[in-house]
Automatic annotation (TrEMBL):
Gene3D superfamilies, per the entry: Leucine-rich Repeat Variant (1.25.10.10)
Descriptive protein name: HEAT repeat protein
SUPFAM superfamilies, alphabetized: ARM repeat
Amino acid sequence: MVPINSTHRNSQDTRLIDALAAGNSSTRLKAALAIGTRPAPGFVDVLVERCAIEPDFFVRDMLTWALTRYPSEITVSKLRAELRSRRPQARSQALHTLSKIGDKNAWPAITRSLLRDSDDEVARSAWRAAVVLAPEGEREWLAGELATQWGRGDRDVRLSLSRALVALGDVIEPILRAAMASDDPTVRAHASATRRLLHDPDAGFDLAVDEARRVVALGPDRKEETAC
């Protein structure tokens, strides 16, 4: 564990650091909450390091919240460094935290390799972060990059991709048209479901996928039969 700078370290700091590594998840959660409630110099490295190994989802979310309480000038550079980690969780949680901080200066760190990461959780986190951080002039490029992932993974992965694309708005229309003309029925169904979500945000993803699969199975000439 990264030690706190000795000039700021005291018994309370030490107890909080120890509590972040406690066996009980409730103790770790309370420690992260305490640090975020009163952010003090020297805890950022400890929080970032803990994000990489924390097994509990709720504690990880509290660690992210605590990091958002610090100035982005302090946190962003440390989180960007985590994106090069060999630990998938370190990359995923750093991306998640960057999306919550929302500092556009982090955009250059969202690389093609992260958007295509072989780990599904890292890729999903990268898609969400990219949508938040991408400047206006990069959104078309981002849509094209996300389109390389059509049909990837299970239901949750595909829903994450669809949501990321829908968040980009009308810029994805050419991408959708191209995918819906694909020779791959899985790509066509995924793109069709995404298009429905774009135009009807209240539509359920599973229903949209089911309808898209029926359309793909019937073929374009019998599309209207699905409405009967």
